[in-house]
Structure formats: structure tokens, C-alpha cells
Amino acid sequence: xxxxxxxxxxxxxxxxxxxxxxxxxxxxxxxxxxxxxxxxxxxxxxxxxxxxxxxxxxxxxxxxxxxxxxxxxxxxxxxxxxxxxxxxxxxxxxxxxxxxxxxxxxxxxxxxxx
Length: 114
Description:
Layout: H1 3-35, H2 41-66, H3 70-81, H4 85-109
Helix pairs in contact: 1-2, 1-4, 2-3, 3-4
């Protein structure tokens, strides 16, 4: 994996958890808006919207660079539209990066010829 591919995966991973948190907070604000006089939906909506747009941009870049299958790309996109899906995407991306580091070290040491 080259540095640009690793960077694109890292960016996607970095925005996954905050996007999930903002989605959950937006849901809480929506409930509070309907049950109290507290209305933070416009602010949280804007924050979540920005983070979601960043997630989609980084997802597209990661898909282009990693050459994911359509199924893998669809999974990461589906995780972005689920309220806590970003947490699962971050965990899966972290494992993928760790596996790549292990494979890279093994190739460097000559234990695996791939």
C-alpha cells in the first residue's frame, strides 16, 4: 500500500467516529426539540452535514485508491448512514490498516512472497 492510499484510509477513519457522534447528537437534539423548548437541531444539523459530506468525499477517495469491491464500498457507505455505523467503520478501517502493516513487514522480511 502506498502512502497516498494509506493517507486516504486514515482520513476516512478519522472522520468516521465524529460523524457517528454528530449523527447521534442530532437524533438527541431532534427528540429534545419535540419534547422541550431546547432547539439545537439547526446547529447540529449543520455540523453533522459537514461531517457527512467529508465522510463521503473521503470514502470516494479511499474507494478509488484502494480499488475496493462494490460490496466493500457499499458496506462503508451503508455504515455512514446508520446512527452508530461510523464507529464500526472506524474499527474495521483500523483493523484493515493493521493487517496491511503486518503484511508489509512480512513482505519486507521475506517471509511472505506476495
